[in-house]
Amino acid sequence: MSENNNEFNEEESNKDSVNDAWVAVVIIFALTAIAVLWVSNQ
Question: Where are the domains of the chain?
Answer without folding.
Answer: 1-42
